Amino acid sequence: MSHEQTFLMKPKVDFCFKELMEDTIRRMYSDKLEIHILELPKLAERQYPQTELLKWASFFQAEKKEEFEMAAEGSSYIERAYERLTEISADDLKRLEYESREKAIRDHIYLMNYNLKKGLEEGKEEGRKEGREEGLEEGLTKGRQEGIEQGMKVLIKF
After folding, report:
1. pLDDT, mean over the chain
2. Could you count the other beta carbons within 10 Å of the beta carbon of residue 10?
3. Which among 67, 92, 96, 133 could bridge 62 via Cys, Cβ 3.0 to 4.6 Å?
4. For the residues 92-109, what does the mean pLDDT come to?
5. Residue 21 carries which DSSP code?
6. CB of 65 within 8 A of CB of 3?
């Protein structure tokens, strides 16, 4: 079996999620369900038992064919979503779009982490510098005070 035949997009990548949800919403309308998109969470709570919602969650977290198949067992909606996932995963143009979006997400995460790390390092260095300056100033002030006190003690002795 070649890599091309086993490739499946990850549903949690926004490009793939959008493709799957457009199909799901279209099917809902074709089933004569007049559902406003904002009402979908309420519908999910009423229509699906907790186990069905957990299956959907495991479907969207799946990354291997076997995981998708286990999540789809016994649910016609999830089975249809799995079928749609295999269809869009086999489409070369959609795959290019998906891979480019997945790369953009990885690049964004990398840059965010890099900038966070760089910012923390710069912040620590700035804090050290300010701490040194404040410590030096405090040390000089304290040293002057001690010098004056010692000078006064010497003068009093004489």
Report:
1. 81
2. 16
3. 67
4. 93
5. H
6. no
Least-confidence region, from 21-25, 33-37, 78-82, 144-148: 33-37
Question: Please, are residues 45 and 134 in contact by the beta-carbon 8 Å criterion?
Answer: no
- DSSP string spanning 112-156? HHHHHHHHHHHHHHHHHHHHHHHHHHHHHHHHHHHHHHHHHHHHH
**CB neighbourhood size of 45 (10 A):** 10
For residues 95 and 85, the answer to whether their CB atoms sit within 8 Å is no
Structure tokens at 146: 């001690």
d(CA 19, CA 22): 5
pLDDT value of position 28: 58
